[in-house]
Design goal:
By secondary structure, this protein is of the alpha/beta class. The protein has 10 helices and 9 strands. The protein has a single domain, classed as Vaccinia Virus protein VP39 (Rossmann fold). It binds S-adenosylmethionine.
């Protein structure tokens, strides 16, 4: 019977679901404008500084998409939040970009920028910086903004804790050609086992042979999702990132680590570093 096939005793499954529900409840207080202010303004987004965190992330993404091994039509960004930086390179390579988030407030924030350019954060310096990485003039940023608006086809609800995180029929049946996910899995999961399970769920959205670009926090136990709202995070180390990817069947192509300089520790979290992984689903 099904009892023998169960991987975990029912008690543990129920405890996992309660812990996952508690995370969902935490997110009800998430404030997109505050989150953007905390993480996506200087010093963390200082384009004059070589050691600032956002330029590092943008350079990793740029490099990954320039290597010529990622091809296809559809890119899905998992847990986009209120941010657009993570698809600014990929939007030049893929013809259709799907943004996703669990929260309606975040999806609305993204829709506003897509519709009329209004948003809680000015993305222009980001667009300019990525244009420079691509060897274009910073003034090409308006072309990049137009490109991004034309290729984003949807902003969809997602829940990485469901075996099928997206509503059926929203992306091609054989899966996306590329998945991007930044600071999502570790900040929505109660522990490493649930994080690894969620990685398995999102992998079902990727076609065999497709690529995953995973960016996330190292050594982080909480971050502020709004003023005074501490959201718990699974503190990860490099080895756990690698073993989680391996147990989901990925072939790790590249892993880069950024260590946070003291000046970037501004009290909005206790992150010590950031990882960037490029992996391929066999
Ligand atoms: N990707 C953005 C970035 O790089 O800044 C946002 C990351 S933010 C730390 C985590 C995001 O996960 C939030 O936007 C939140 O709404 C979303 N989220 C919360 N619960 C989720 C769930 N169960 N499934 C998918 N995303 C979830």
């Amino acid at each position: 019977g099904s009892a023998e096939l169960r991987e975990k005793p029912r008690r543990e499954e129920e405890e996992d679901e309660e812990a996952v529900d508690a995370m969902r409840v935490c997110y009800q207080g998430f404030d997109p404008a505050a989150y953007l202010q905390f993480n996506y303004t200087p010093p963390r987004a200082d384009f004059q500084r070589a050691d600032s965190i956002v330029p590092w992330k943008l350079a990793c993404l740029h490099r990954a998409f320039s290597e010529g091994d990622m091809q296809g039509e559809v890119l899905v960004d998992v847990g986009s939040g209120p941010t657009l930086y993570q698809v600014m390179s990929g939007c030049e390579v893929f013809g259709r970009v799907v943004l996703t988030d669990f929260l309606e407030v975040n999806r609305r924030e993204l829709q506003r920028w897509l519709q009329d350019g209004s948003s809680s954060l000015d993305w222009t310096p980001y667009l300019e910086y990525v244009c420079q990485l691509e060897g274009r003039r910073p003034s090409a940023s308006s072309e990049k903004a137009a490109r991004l608006r034309s290729v984003v086809s949807d902003v969809l609800p997602i829940d990485v804790h469901r075996p099928c995180p997206l509503a059926p029929g929203t992306i091609p049946a054989n899966g996306a050609d590329c998945l991007v996910s930044c600071f999502c899995l570790e900040s929505v999961s109660p522990d490493l086992a649930v994080l690894t399970r969620a990685l398995g769920h999102i992998s079902s959205l990727l076609r065999p042979g497709g690529h995953l670009l995973l960016i996330g926090a190292l050594g982080e136990s909480y971050y502020l999702g709004a003023a005074g709202l501490r959201i718990p995070v699974v503190p990860l180390d490099e080895a756990q990132v690698c073993s989680s990817l391996k147990s989901s069947g990925y072939q790790l192509l590249q892993l880069s680590i950024y260590t946070l300089p003291a000046e970037m520790r501004v009290g909005v979290d206790d992150v010590t570093g950031v990882f960037f992984a490029k992996a391929r689903k066999p």
